Amino acid sequence: xxxxxxxxxxxxxxxxxxxxxxxxxxxxxxxxxxxxxxxxxxxxxxxxxxxxxxxxxxxxxxxxxxxxxxxxxxxxxxxxxxxxxxxxxxxxxxxxxxxxxxxxxxxxxxxxxxxxxxxxxxxx
Length: 124
Fold this sequence. Notes:
The protein is α+β, with helices and mostly antiparallel strands. 23% of the residues lie in helices and 37% in strands. The chain has helices spanning 15-26, 74-83, 113-118; strands at residues 3-12, 30-33, 42-45, 49-53, 64-71, 87-89, 92-97, 103-108. The chain has an 8-stranded mixed sheet. The longest helix has 12 residues, at 15-26.
C-alpha cells in the first residue's frame, strides 16, 4: 500500500492577498472554492494548497489546519490509524487527530493514482 500528500490546508488572515501571491508569483490557479462569504472562505489551488480564511489568525503557530493524504486503501489506513487510538474528528470517520494534535484527512485515490503520482520525477 502507498499514499501521498494531496493537499495541505493552511490558515491565512488575508485570503485575497495569498490568492494573488500564489497566482502571480507561482502560477498556482484556483482549482475549487467553497463559495462562502468572509470569514469562512476556503480555496483549493492547483499544486496541493488549500487556503482557509481565518481573520483571527496571527501566526506563525497554528497555521496548518490539516493534511489531506491520498491512499490506495482508505479502509486499511483507517483501521491501522484507529488501532493506534487516534481521535475521530467531526468531519467524518476519514478525519482524525493524532496525539500531538496534527489533523489528517484520508482520501481514497482512484485505481493506479498513487503509483502514477509517485512515478513523477520532480527533478526532471
